[in-house]
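Quick one:
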Amino acid sequence: MDPTQPDKAVYLHVGAPAAGGAFLQKALWANRRRLAKDGVRYPVAGPLEHFGAVMDLRDMTWGGHRDPAWEGAYERVAERARGWRGHTVVLSQELLGGADEQQVERAVTSFGDAEVHIVFATRDLGTQLILDWQEQIRHTHTITFERFVADLVEHGIDAPEPYGEMFWGLHDPVRVLRAWETAVPRERIHVITLPPSWNAPGLLWRRFCELTGIDAARYDVAGIPDDRPLSVIEAELMRRLNGKLAAALGGEYEDVVRAHLIGHALSAGAEAGGVGGDAPMALPDEHATWAARRTAEVVDGIRTAGYRVHGDLAELAAAPRPEQAVMPGELPDREVATALIAVIAELLTRLAEVRERVGLAQLHADLASVRDGLDRLMETAAVPNPALRRAARRAGMGR
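Output:
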């Protein structure tokens, strides 16, 4: 072994939200066993334990609640990392980006003598604004896109809760990485750049593997969905439905939305809606100019800090506004109403299919129970118990 190389390196992917983190976590989980054979540990015991570990590290609640299973979760993950005899550990959770300096210190020192690296992936801020609004809409919020952007532009991190802190506290790489600099030298802080379009599937995976020393070609990520953004009408339908769905579904909201709305009923609604069916989103012109200027400042900050860039900082330049781009507030009411009717029809169809499957499953269960009962009767008839035999003898003598 090269004596100048560390015995073990730990790579913490700390952001930004909506920049491919969900895909990365699914890819690591799906390939965890093969990675381990190659000396790379993804130290979580379940597909969502990384989330609980960060909730524990940062002492956070989610939706006003705190799961008792989160208690001690970060230390359990860190203990597995410390005990790993291979050369690399990787951990991904975008909410790590909001850690304060005390939490950063705890996170880094928890890995013992390992050499810790920090990884931050991002697109231009205009694209991140769109993606973050959509992420908020996927979690019960009802704020309009136009209000969301205007507040973040005007008030910055002091925008109304939770949006100011959730956006600027997690999406600004200069702000986020400044906290991690207090415990990790700049030469071990990495920025992965991503273009605003989705025309390069697997790019984040390849760049992440390159910087961590993983051979990307050895692992299968083809079947893992890349979370593409919603079209403008899908996002607006989701926002309007949230006003009723969130209260009605409660804790089942996210499961129901993932299973039945996103990629299913919303797509049917968008297709029926008309001109906005597949239209992408864009910022208002005045905010697009601001976002381009603010992104240029971020690029200068990354360059000045000397972080290691994987990709090209030019990819963070704001993309031209797509010709067909529409803002949610520009959608005609008639189009939205038509789309909502299609969503209702799709959900009713899926409900009927679910009821039919449940009915068939119950029928199969009932038939299985009847078969079990018949089997027991046949066994009893073949080998009658002593009481039955005595009763049979008495019946024979009385004839």
